[in-house]
Specification:
The protein contains six helices and ten strands; from the N terminus they run E-E-E-H-E-E-H-E-H-H-H-E-H-E-E-E. It is α/β, with parallel strands linked by helices. Helix 4 packs across helix 5. The structure holds adenosine-5'-diphosphate (ADP) and magnesium ion.
Length: 235
C-alpha cells in the first residue's frame, strides 16, 4: 500500500503507574508516564537496565496491566478490552517484536511470517504471498524455508519485523531489538526501522543502545520508571 493510503494510528499513554511488589521490596517500574506517538514517528525509549522500558512496552501492548493510568489506541481504551480483543488489536494494529521475538521453532521462516495472517483468517496462498513480499522487502526472501534455529540474531530480528510488515500492522513496538546484534547489524536495523517510520509506520523502540538516538525522531530517557527527558532529532 502506498504511504499516503496507510491508515493513521495514534497511541496515547496517560499517567501510567506500576509497582511490582515482592516479599521484601516494592519496585516502581512506571511512575506517571504519559506519552503520545503516532504514524511516521520513530520514538526511542532510552534508559539503563531496570529503568522500566520493557514494562512500558508491555503495557502499551496490553500485555501487562498498569496499577493506574490508561493506554488508548485511536479511540479504544486498551484496558477496557478483553484479553481476546487485546490479542486482536496486536494482530491487526500494534505489532510487537520482543527480544526473544517468539518465532516458532517448528515452523520455517515463511510460515512464521504468515502465521498471524493465517490466525486472522487470511487464505494460505494469500498469506504466503504477503509473507514472501515482506521477506523480499527486508532482503531475506532467500531465508524463507530455513528454520529459525538456523538464523543469526540479526536475521531473526528481520524475520520479526517481516512478520509485522506482512500483517500490515500500523505500529511496531520493539524491545531491545539490537540486544543480540553487533554494531554493523544494529545500525542496519535502526536504518530499517527509520525507513519504515518514514513510510508511515509508528515505531517505538525500547533500548539501552545509544546508537538508536541517532535514528529516532524523538528520544525519551527513562530513569526509575519516569520519563525524564525528551530529545528531538537534530537538536
Ligand atoms: N515481574 C516482575 N516482578 C518484579 N519486579 C519486576 C518484574 N518485572 C520487572 N521488574 C522490575 O521493574 C523494574 C523495571 O523493569 P523493566 O521494565 O524490565 O526495565 P528495563 O526494560 O528498562 O530493563 C526493574 O527494577 C525490574 O527488576
Ligand atoms: Mg527491558
Amino acid at each position: 500500500m502506498p504511504p499516503d493510503q496507510e491508515p493513521e494510528i495514534k497511541i496515547e499513554c496517560s499517567d501510567l503507574s506500576k509497582t511490582y511488589r515482592t516479599a521484601n521490596e516494592h519496585v516502581t517500574a512506571l511512575a506517571d508516564v504519559s506519552l503520545s506517538v503516532t504514524s511516521g514517528e520513530f520514538v526511542c525509549i532510552y534508559g539503563a537496565s531496570g529503568s522500566g522500558k520493557s514494562t512500558l512496552l508491555h503495557t502499551i501492548a496490553g500485555l501487562s496491566d498498569p496499577d493506574s493510568g490508561n493506554v488508548q489506541v485511536d479511540d479504544r481504551d486498551v484496558f477496557q478490552l478483553t484479553r481476546n480483543e487485546r490479542a486482536d488489536l496486536r494482530r491487526e494494529r500494534v505489532g510487537v517484536i520482543f527480544q526473544d521475538h517468539n518465532l516458532m521453532a517448528e515452523l520455517n521462516v515463511l510460515e512464521n511470517v504468515a502465521l498471524p495472517l493465517r490466525v486472522g483468517g487470511t487464505r494460505a496462498s494469500e498469506a504466503k504471498t504477503l509473507a514472501h513480499q515482506a521477506l523480499s522487502r527486508l532482503g531475506i526472501d532467500n531465508l524463507a524455508v530455513r528454520s529459525p534455529s538456523e538464523l543469526s540474531g540479526g536475521q531473526r530480528q528481520r524475520v520479526g519485523i517481516a512478520r509485522v510488515l506482512a500483517s500490515g500492522q500500523d505500529a511496531i513496538l520493539a524491545d531491545e531489538p539490537t540486544g543480540a546484534l553487533d554494531s554493523t547489524n544494529s545500525e542496519a536495523l535502526f536504518i530499517l526501522l527509520k525507513a519504515l517510520s518514514a513510510d508511515g509506520a509508528c515505531v517505538v523502540v525500547a533500548t539501552h543502545d545509544p546508537l538508536a538516538r541517532q535514528f529516532a525522531t524523538r528520544t525519551h530517557t527513562m530513569i526509575d520508571g519516569r520519563i525524564a527527558m525528551e530529545k528531538v532529532a537534530g537538536r
